[in-house]
Amino acid sequence: MTIRWMTLTLLFGALSAGAQPAPQPLPTPFERDTTYSATYRETMGFYAELAAHYPEQCSLQLAGGTDAGAPLYAFVLSPDGTLTPDSARAREKTVLLVNNGIHAGEPCGVDASMMLARDLLSGRLLPGAWSEVVLVIMPFYNVGGARNRGAPSRANQNGPRNPGFRGNARNLDLNRDFVKCDSRNAQSFNRLFAYWQPHLLVDTHTSNGADYQHTMTLIASQKDKLEPPLGRYLETRLLPELYRRMAAHGWDMVPYVNTRSTTPDSGIDGFLDLPRYGTGYAALHHCLGFISEAHMLKPFARRVRSTYSLLENLLVIAADQGAGIRRAQAQAVRHARSRKRLPLRWALDTASVDSVLFRGYAADHKPSKVSGLPRLYYDRNRPYERKIPYRNDFKPVLEVSRPTAYLIPQAYRRVVDRLRWNGVRLHRLRKDTTLELNVYTIREVQTTARAYEGHYLHYEVEVESQRMRRTFFQGDWVAFTDQPALRYLVEVLEPQAPDSFFAWNFFDGILMQKEYFSSYVFEDEAARLLDAHPDWRAELEARKRTDPAFAQDARAQLEWVYRRSPYFERTYRMYPVARWEGRPRLPVEAVRGWE
Predict the structure, then answer these.
(1) pLDDT tens, 37-71?
(2) Residue 314 carries which DSSP code?
(3) Domain residues of the chain, as ranges?
(4) Which of 70, 133, 387, 498 is most buried (CB neighbours < 10 A)?
(5) Is the pTM of this model over 0.90?
């Protein structure tokens, strides 16, 4: 069913019944003290006051739950009152989604967005200039981290006082959770994203890493991973204008300083934004994503103001270039749906080198006061400005053919839930159906030795595909690939994709063998099978001649026969999601609404 958004009526105690809204302009906690960042309660109370004062142009809407138990909210602004996406007028708008406080210890966007929303609504900023834009602000995404204030975990950061914590209430990094959706926060975000289908996403952060003169750095959606119409638009139209406008406002911005070695002098490389991250997730839905990275060593006030400027300039670009952005997105959707093959894995093209004008500080070494050994430091008395190498071209290193549809057993409800949260159109089989399908067997897989965000992530997955008859049952799910969500569908269901549901352990049950044999029982049957299959016996004897350890291992030889026998379970390492590449009609019915 369509998600029904609720306008907030509980104003966090900020407004009592019958009280008049505060006079404008309403100051933010940051403006009262520029070393301070607003708490979750202060932030939501501020937006509640704005909603009460400007009910025709904005609303504070319930956007789902969080692991912390407190609600997740979205603050929606539109000059003409287009506050939901389900009207003809809304479809003519450009939607800009701003996500704040994903790492609650990096709250620049929290305070910047509060001021931006107030200034837009009061007419102090861009009066009449953003009428074709709907601005959707998530005031505080990581509610649990926001409540964990004063955690002394930002050792490299210059303020604010008492920042929040990077992990959420379950100690998850939400900027690794956009696909696996372990957190209620991410589950709510997926549904919000599918509801609004934004054209632009900004996820506000504070950087770590080298020291340099720039206050703001930027990660944009990796251009090569976008469909060509959208990637070209980003590179030739949007980014040049954004960098130009930021410089004109006094914020000389550079790409995120992802250093090739210890310091930026040797150059920086583009960031491979896998779908677990905000920009990579947005790209799966043909949305242009941006991660702002305000430099951690600059004063907090400067970081907030540079983030404000970035949001303001993106809003202006969304207004000025809205028609072009929407057109490029529509072309990208059509291009993806015309593909016969789709990329799954990417690698940096090290032979393709550009340059970027960089304003840094000379790096040097001096004796450490702790260890006495040489330590790195940046000398702010020796600033420099010069071009450094910049590599930002990526090439696909693994592609997969596009099936007609994926068939998903209903047992895997967690997978189906995530598909539906992301707007994937699904059908269900009306009756048991046997088909000729392409089925993967997992041949090789590496797994991280340590837990990563609550999982033991699989990587370097190698598969073997074979054609076989498989029966799927009434109620099993069918996802046809001829739909706008194609890129998302392929990258979560193809097991070799780096952020597939297989990589995130959703199908680990297939990696453990369920049935075995007792050697003394199977001995006679194994001998009978070898007599019945002389070619097996010849192959076994050849293996024994070339492998002395195998020749002395009776159990290993029985296992060799067992794996070729009809007793060996066919579901072991068989990937449950099958690929259908036929054309006949399937006995399916469309799914309407949530069960």
Answers:
(1) 999 999 999 999 999 999 999 999 999 999 999 99
(2) H
(3) 29-226+274-337, 401-513+572-590, 519-564
(4) 133
(5) yes
